[in-house]
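>> received
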Amino acid sequence: MPRLILFNKPYGVLSQFSGGPEDVARATLAAWIDVPGVYPAGRLDKDSEGLLLLTDDGRLQARIAEPRHKMPKTYLAQVEGVPGADALDQLRRGVTLNDGVTRPAEAAVIEPPPLWERDPPIRYRKNVPDSWIALTITEGRNRQVRRMTAAVGHPTLRLVRWRVGDWTVEGLAPGEWRDAG
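>> returned
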């Protein structure tokens, strides 16, 4: 039976078990997960937090990570400003980025979610309001959610991956992990 681990990746941690010489001072998964033979199914950049799945099964890893499988991934994004109907419609139709048009996404403004404190906290700007959106995508381009929100005029301040397929980070504090199932 394949092993699947749900990990709440803290801000600043790389989605890999080791780094090159330039990464000596950075935290990697090895500081949090001491389970031999598991590897990340997809990536989450160091500036993002939340659900990272790890498995010892290559086929499961591919099904989770490869865009052709269109596994939905839901992100909670704290953005500058309050996206209006036009910005949300753009996200729902697909946004033109430098590497092409994204697939349509599910997008909605939401109330601030009851999340853990981020260390370090985001920088607030006194004269710029912020809000939260839930965004579900079915592809995984490099820094895609950040690029999408910026393209519609609402740069991301904080990004938390909440769900991948049926798996969620709910109930896991940053740095905690559990076996799925």
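>> Residues 85-93 form the longest helix (9 residues).
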